[in-house]
Amino acid sequence: MACAGLTSDQLRERALTPSGLSLLGLVRHMADVERTWFRSVLNGENSSAHWPRSDGGAFDVDTADPVEAFETWHEECARSRDIVDAACHTSSR
């Protein structure tokens, strides 16, 4: 909700100098958190981050695309729900 209606520039805005923290960076980070915890940890998949640290990581948003970030996060959330649903069905048998 904090991101709704904000422009790309507003999403890239840093919280405080010299902080590299931005709302867009948090969205990208959360997409990687969803991927890591649900795919790798819970489901045992071998998955890598969307934005590897060697490339600046999720918090490097200077040229980041907000649409891509939100789409990626929504896709990872949907995949996480599928993994949880599958785990619940397996454990209830």
The ordered string of helix (H) and strand (E) elements is HHH
In one word, what is the shape? elongated
Major beta sheet summary? none
Work out the count of structural domains: 1
How many strands appear in the DSSP assignment? 0
Q: Spans with pLDDT under 50 lasting ≥5 residues? A: none
How many angstroms does the end-to-end distance come to? 38 Å
Look at the structure and give the mean pLDDT.
Answer: 89
Count of DSSP helices? 3
Structural class: mainly alpha
Evaluate the radius of gyration.
15 Å
Helix content: 40-55%
**How large is the share of residues in beta strands?**
under 5%
Organism: Streptomyces kaniharaensis
InterPro entries: DinB/YfiT-like, MST-like
Protein name: DUF664 domain-containing protein
Provide structural commentary.
- This is DUF664 domain-containing protein.
- It comes from Streptomyces kaniharaensis.
- InterPro entries: DinB/YfiT-like, MST-like.
- The N and C termini lie far apart (38 Å).
- The protein has one domain (19-91).
- With 93 residues, the protein is mainly α.
- The protein has helices spanning 8-12, 23-42, 66-91.
- The model has no long low-confidence stretch (mean pLDDT 89).
- Helix 2 (23-42) packs parallel to helix 3 (66-91).
- Helix content is 55%, strand content 0%.
